[in-house]
Amino acid sequence: MREKTFLSCLLAICLLAVRGISRAGGAHQEGLLAYGVTSVRDMAGWLSWLNALADRGDATSDPVPRYFFGGESFGGSQMASGDANLLIHSQDDARRYARHWHEHGAHFIKVFTSLPWPLHRAVAQEARRLGLPVAGHMSNVERITKSVTLGYAVLEHTMNPRPYDDVLQLLAQVGTRWDPTLRGGYFFLRDEAE
């Protein structure tokens, strides 16, 4: 008989619902709970769909994870990916979309590396005014330094090679979290947890 280990904590998972859960029509929500995942942070889904997933727990007696989401990511005119991204062209657009995301229940705003720095600044300023954290990408030391200067709450992924201690100390000192990507690509949970 195989032994199983129980973690005496609540687990959280960060994923892209538009690429996983929502394409399955939310069918994996119960599976997430079966695997011990009680909170989901979705980094780049459609606000209307994510609100529906989040509201499911209030509207039904179904057990579902808690959802924290940022809606479509903010990007510049040269996106690397075509999924669920807004193309921001001006500082007015950046501020208007940040307000729109706030009004429609986003818990944070995620910006892509394709967004020019003046637009990063506009997003960060408006998000700070609204009380919304901003998430960015941790791809190099220059980007990390600029993101910290703008007050980003979290930096996603990692850089290669691994960041040196001075970078990690900078993040710790200002309170910016680093959320390294441990596994990329698509994954699917089994229908039943083992």
Describe this structure in words.
34% of the residues lie in helices and 17% in strands. The protein has 194 residues and is α/β, with parallel strands linked by helices. The strands form three sheets. Strands 6-7-8-9 form a four-stranded parallel beta sheet. It starts with 10 loop residues before the first strand and ends in a 15-residue tail after the last strand. Residues 4-12, 17-25 and 184-189 have low confidence and may be disordered.
Q: Mind telling me the C-alpha Rg?
A: 18 Å
What class do helices, strands and sheet pairing give?
Answer: alpha/beta
**Residue windows where pLDDT falls under 50 for at least 5 positions:** 4-12, 17-25, 184-189
End-to-end Cα distance: 12 Å
Overall tally of domains: 2
Strand order of the largest sheet: 6-7-8-9
Order of helices and strands: EHEHEEEHEHEHEHE
| CATH-defined topology of the largest domain | Rossmann fold
Q: How is the biggest beta sheet arranged?
A: 4 strands, parallel
CATH H-tier superfamily of the largest domain: Amidohydrolase
Q: What does the overall shape look like? A: globular
Q: Tell me, what is the CATH class of the largest domain?
A: Alpha Beta
What is the strand content?
15-25%
Mean pLDDT: 77
What is the architecture of the largest domain at the second tier of CATH? 3-Layer(aba) Sandwich
Annotation field: number of helices: 6
Helix content bin: 25-40%
What is the strand tally? 9
